[in-house]
């Protein structure tokens, strides 16, 4: 799609009445309220801000969205740029884009900052026309990273911006920016994973067959940094727990001067073997998976520093207790200090170690503690003067602080009743930090997100970089002079552009304008915009959103689908573009409702920690409040309410269907963890402690003991190769229901892991959803006798 060159001012992105809501307290009502629902919620005071960007063209002819069109090419989301980054010299933008002929394959594109059309740098199909099968290790790694696409799924620049390194289907390619050539660096039967260009661009490093290898770009010669990776010993790769639960996807780190590489060694011999069936359409195999369940041993992780020049390696002193988590690793700007974040097994203590890379000697320079758990972040930022920035939640809200090189806190950079979401960048010249937050005028405002700036040299209130309204994510360049911004709101599909740090748009990356020619345009007129509101629970304000069917008539009654995740996450209620699957539900005649209960969302420590030691209890209490609210609305059929969710949302659906106060007619539960002692250590113990220490909490959250309380019909779904929420979670419920002679429905997906991938299977999944809903709460649902 051709890109518009016109320049749009910041005011054009601003919600016209956004300034009328000055604090979170003003949100105790509908935000973006539709006039249809206002009368039904007169107890709330409304703010009613307007769409962030008005329609750019007249309304299209009305077309009903079908499930077949949702899961077909091209994607209804339009041309959405993924993984956007700015070259180190600020002259070129790189990004990933789905192919028009196959949305599941990504190519690497680039666009000149100063103008000119984007062009394709790496054509995945041209370089590897027939993608083979990935190794089991790479499949597992991509599952942990939630990468479902093929082709170019990740890439990286060298610090000079001369090259772009791109792993592709198990091998590594290097794009030369100067002449546009693409050089194949490896062509082996093994997968080369986690490839990186060294900071000065002299080397490319990667992991092959569980060992770290460094390739000299000038000579093409390879050097094996380790050579004993095999079986249960792996070098330079983040272990399962780090990838899945600690948000750490790498296991090695170059020093800025290229002299050292910090790398981890993982020994999985201590981890229990959990045999699991990997069932595909062609048969079944038994995978002897090393899976660390709650209360059981983790892998032993050690950290070393390799002197690349001298060929020597030293072990980092991580302390006498080996039963810890290697949470984060960062280098000082001068490469003389290695910073390591060590997290205790119970996750109540996070310590920052200062390590001498020449000897491996370490000392604790800063400590964070919590009575529940200390959250991890990617906010650590080493500065050129030796100081560093790091975040802490000790005030009850996540905020940024400045420390000196010895770990002494110098000042708070941010403060107030809102959480900092992420550190987006730093301008070392002006002494500013840039961060994202859901905040207005110093108060939490959960349904929107903006980019802010604040000084780390002096105390002062943050100022807005992006305009209010909608949901912004941003990545600031190394000099803090520009940022790549991604924006969306309920009227605007995801857009990406390059901006100067004052908010002026430099150029579009993907404008993705909703207009004739956009894939979603034929269905836009029938898209219903969500209404937002709040409910109260135990002194906390819960956010919700509701979307009604087309041609909604408040004098009629409608069935409701409550969508849920419910667990620790970023939350789902936000002023953002709604997925096409929501429209499938509204077209089928359902009101779609979502509540972010306590425990869900990047909010205060108290809000998140409400579920500590009792997962499935406060979350269901809040969902009961939501169900009661729905039944108070005159246009809701209180006998036809269903809930649907996947993963933690599947657990919530089962818990809700077995909670009499919910009164659900049906529930759709996908890949549910049904007994938390079957799940992994870091996630489960963070929120529930161990099964040995919290017997009561684990028992209360076991779905099996609640089956006699089913209030309606159940559809259970699971991937038959799931290595995250292992299939046993579902089979134990199947067995329990059968033992009680309770009718239920099941849909299993051979070969699928924790998610159902690909258009064909997604189409089947949603046909199954819609059929089940229609039979239980929809047009084919049996009428209840008066």
Automatic annotation (TrEMBL):
Is the keyword Signal in the record?
Answer: yes
Which of UniProt's keywords are assigned here? Answer: Hydrolase, Protease, Signal
Question: Could you tell me the EC number(s) of this protein?
Answer: 3.4.14.5
List each copy of the Dipeptidylpeptidase IV N-terminal domain by range: 167-493
Q: Name one GO molecular function term.
A: dipeptidyl-peptidase activity
* EC supergroup of this enzyme: hydrolase
InterPro entries documented for this protein: AB_hydrolase_fold, Pept_S9_AS, Peptidase_S9_cat, Peptidase_S9B_N, Serine_Prot_S9B/DPPIV
Stretches assigned to the Peptidase S9 prolyl oligopeptidase catalytic domain: 582-778
Q: Which Gene3D superfamilies match?
A: alpha/beta hydrolase (3.40.50.1820), Dipeptidylpeptidase IV, N-terminal domain (2.140.10.30)
Q: Name one GO biological process term.
A: proteolysis
Thylakoid among the record's keywords? no
Which residues does UniProt assign to the signal peptide? 1-45
**This protein is called what?**
Dipeptidyl-peptidase-4
Q: Which organism is this protein's natural source?
A: Brevundimonas bullata
